[in-house]
Amino acid sequence: MAEYKPIRKVVSGNYAAAYAVKHARVQVVAAYPITPQTSIIEKVAEFIANGEVENLQYVPVESEHSAMAACIGASAAGARAFTATSAQGLALMHEMLHWASGARLPIVMVDVNRAMAPPWSVWDDQTDSLAQRDTGWMQFYAENNQEVYDGVLMAFKIAETVNLPAMIVESAFILSHTYDVVEMIPQELVDEFLPPRKPLYDLADFSRPFSVGALGTPADYYEFRYKIAKAMEDAKKVIKDVGKEFGERFGRDYSDMIEKGYVDDADFVFMGMGSLMGTVKEAVELLRKEGYKVGYAKVRWFRPFPKEELREIAESVKGIAVLDRNFSFGQEGILFNEAKGALYNTSARPIMKNYIVGLGGRDFTVPDVKKVAENMKAIIEKGELDVEVDWYHLKR
Amino acid sequence: MEIPENVKKRLSIPAEEHFYSGHTACQGCGAALGLRYVLKAYGRKTIFTIPACCSTIIAGPWPYTALDANLFHTAFETTGAVLGGIEAALKARGIKVKGEDGVMVVGWAGDGGTADIGLQALSGFLERGHDAVYIMYDNEAYMNTGIQRSSSTPYGAWTTNTPGGKKHFLEKRQKKKVIDIVIAHNPPYAATASVAYPEDFIRKLKKAQKIPGPSFIQLFAPCPTGWRAPTDKSIELARLAVQTAYFPLFEYENGKYKINMPNPKKEPKPIEEFLKLQGRFKYMTREDIEILQSWVLREWEKLKKLAEVFG
Ligand SMILES: Cc1ncc(C[n+]2csc(CCOP(=O)(O)OP(=O)(O)O)c2C)c(N)n1
Ligand code: SF4
């Protein structure tokens, strides 16, 4: 095995994604432009124009619905397929997301989290991707550009092992258009880590006739669903193994589905996903110096949901402040809802409070984290919640 | 079943069967016949994609398949896009597409999945120039969901959402000319065909196989169930549709039109001959028939003119 010497490049989150697509030797990219995803697919087109990639077919489709449909066709015909989108585009794809997982196709997509309209907004918000949580797609939330790059490479390996599609999620502008150093992996080492795809079935295999996706009667449909459920459950181990392997080979360990910091002796932790957690991690360092006993739990993989890891964290703390840059109307923040649900049948019952933050690109800063910390501290001392769901930024 | 050599020689269409008995179409189904001919033309090395439509059911429920070919079932509006994806994958993998020895990538969609919800993907497919064949089997309504109108439903036809009553029928719009929309994209090859003329259909399929780029064939495929017609009249109906010039057979190739009617010189038969065999037209008055008749003749004249000028 060749020695790993990273190639450092200063790139945006979107370019990090495009480089990962190139290094993963993707064979078909079908995509439709939408801000702030566009520069991913532009960069991929540039790679083709410059002859930097081999055998990459680019299909400039007429809509996101067709982008996913074309990826589905391509993946069913044995190719490694990729697309990228945001918000309205992802919503338009919804029907086909089910099709991809139902047909057990390991398509990888980058979703650049963007708020849904109306009102029009191009800024960060996780509701677009979280609204797709029941489509049978795995979901990885990247904190920074490095995680976008690493995430795409790992996602192909995981997806092609369990035969389910995977979504790598990055924040609008905060990551998509912000430049940062990303350590890239030399091609031959990526090739070792991610060998060519071995499809579950191949439409170009004519040794026997077969059909995919035919009518499933009540006698069979149920089992098809169970197999997806099972694959999602199995994916947890695959995710951990691949994350560990990635760490061993390239020095960045992703074996935990929830990345933890200062949890062991913390009174309470901040829990959230994506770029938001970069701010939180920074704030935790400062708060620790000020004597706050706080930690963080960054949920990397939202699907499959890391119940077991969450339970472990919940057992050791008195409180969890769940920061949701998303909202499920008529209920509460989506991560909050999921986390509470995951803990109900366990002995771990810390106080949990939901802070709705940063919707539509509203800034969420280190001082904001500190305010949340003060509020959480007071709640824990009192032993009861003030409100369960706190619309933190409201102009009262 | 083995076909004796002397019989084979006499047949004008391929003897090989790649469409299995035991499929689940209604009796007299034009779509089922059409599928059978496509498979005769293209054989085993074919990848089909079929969206939501009667053919989803005809092809058989899991784990069965009536097609001796590989089949990917897809969402209603995605035929054009999935075709593009499959073709792109084969190319990326270095697998030969189209031509005598290449893999045939075939979309098989109804008029609803083509003229309505799938029109956008069809347009994208044609415009991008994928090496695949899109076949629209035209049974003139949404049959799979129980006979609702499509934009390919003719003027005066009863359907369950354009019912006829004591006073009115509701289908007041003329049939959308999907083939004209297709030709506006200037594809390398586009044609109409009919299950009543299998030699012509297979010849067109073979042509589509040879010509690089996207091909489109609109196949007239009677549906006795939805047309309220006797199951043994499907071929007769399909033939009358051609003879009345209601559904003329023609080809568009490299910018040129060619009419391929059995008797091109003959005047079209009156449209009534086509209408009277079908329950779906029973609400039409004399006046309605005239409206339809004049539309048919106007379109026919237009086509003849096109063939004359761009022949
Ligand atoms: C998005 C979506 N909307 C509606 C349907 C329901 N649907 C299934 S088949 C069909 C009609 C198909 O009509 P056509 O394409 O003409 O084919 P046919 O059934 O006549 O063979 C409809 C409306 C669907 N499957 N998907
Ligand atoms: S309803 Fe019509 S198109 Fe559908 S299977 Fe029956 S005859 Fe064929």
From TrEMBL, chain A:
Keyword Oxidoreductase belongs to the record: yes
NCBIfam families named among the record's database cross-references: PRK08366.1
Quaternary structure annotation from Swiss-Prot or TrEMBL: Heterotetramer of one alpha, one beta, one delta and one gamma chain.
Domain spans labelled Pyruvate flavodoxin/ferredoxin oxidoreductase pyrimidine binding: 20-242
GO biological process, one term: response to oxidative stress
Pfam families: PFOR_II (PF17147), POR_N (PF01855)
Record-annotated Pyruvate:ferredoxin oxidoreductase core domain positions: 266-369
Signal peptide: none
CDD domains the UniProt entry points to: TPP_PYR_PFOR_IOR-alpha_like
Top-level division of the source organism's lineage: Archaea
Source species of the chain: Thermococcus guaymasensis DSM 11113
Keywords: Oxidoreductase
MF annotations from Gene Ontology: oxidoreductase activity, acting on the aldehyde or oxo group of donors
InterPro entries: PFOR_II (IPR033412), Pyruvate:ferred/Flavod_OxRd (IPR050722), Pyrv_Fd/Flavodoxin_OxRdtase_N (IPR002880), THDP-binding (IPR029061), Transketo_C/PFOR_II (IPR009014)
Name of the featured protein: 2-ketoisovalerate ferredoxin oxidoreductase subunit alpha
From TrEMBL, chain B:
SUPFAM superfamilies: Thiamin diphosphate-binding fold (THDP-binding) (SSF52518)
Gene Ontology biological process terms from the UniProt entry: organic acid metabolic process; sulfur compound biosynthetic process
Tree of life domain: Archaea
CDD domains per the UniProt record, alphabetical: TPP_PFOR_porB_like
Domain Thiamine pyrophosphate enzyme TPP-binding: 92-218
InterPro entries for this protein: PorB-like, THDP-binding, TPP_enzyme_TPP-bd
Pfam families referenced in this protein's UniProt entry, alphabetically: TPP_enzyme_C
EC number: 1.2.7.7
Broadest EC class assigned to this enzyme: oxidoreductase
Gene Ontology molecular functions: 3-methyl-2-oxobutanoate dehydrogenase (ferredoxin) activity; thiamine pyrophosphate binding
Protein name per Swiss-Prot or TrEMBL: 2-ketoisovalerate ferredoxin oxidoreductase subunit beta
Organism annotation: Thermococcus guaymasensis DSM 11113
Phylogenetic placement of the source organism: Archaea, Methanobacteriati, Methanobacteriota, Thermococci, Thermococcales
